[in-house]
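REQUEST ID: PR-0412
SUBMITTED BY: lab tech R.K.
PRIORITY: routine
TASK: structure prediction, single protein chain
INPUT:
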Amino acid sequence: MPPKKPAAPRGEAVSLRTSAGRSTSQQAWLRRQLNDPYVAAARAQGYRSRAAFKLIELDDRYHVIAKGARVVDLGAAPGGWTQVAIQRGAASVVGVDLLPIDAIAGATLLTGDFNDEDMPARLAELLGGKADLVLSDMAPNTSGHAPTDHLRIMALAELALEFATQILVPGGGFVTKLFQGGSEKTMLTTLKQRFEKVRHAKPPASRKDSSELYVVATGFR
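STATUS: complete
OUTPUT:
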């Protein structure tokens, strides 16, 4: 049964009972979480995070997760995208993160740095071959300074792309998160040289006030 998409919130917004001990930014974050239908839907449907719905929406539109695919999920914690890849029929999924991830049935989860020299070969061995799809929902800790945060996430995305070129099979796919800010145009040019199709989208589950967007590249050359 396909996952249910979150319904729009009804009634009055939930307010905090107390703000004691919380900063203004912490209060704003908690208020947003309490009133976010995707947070409630993720909890109700057993997903590790609301981000699961972003991949669901991207896959519904672009069909990047093929049945029987071998998938690598970079920056996988807490595991929402890994869960979706398994649910959508991937045969082998390996998630990698610097943070430990609680076990997910059907997936292999590694604590480590995907930039380690031996990681591509190690993952290929665990997958039983090169990957059909590399996913990356990685983002840096934000500073609140948009140009700095943009450059930081672009650096992560470029590292993820470099990794993907080492482990993807011909015809494979790559999905990564970016922040809008200008320099993403250079990366899009590189992607168009390495993949047959490159599209970008802001799925409905991505908050409207966020500058994030996702790039979906297919047909690795």
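NOTES: The first strand starts at residue 70 and ends at 74.
REVIEWED BY: pending
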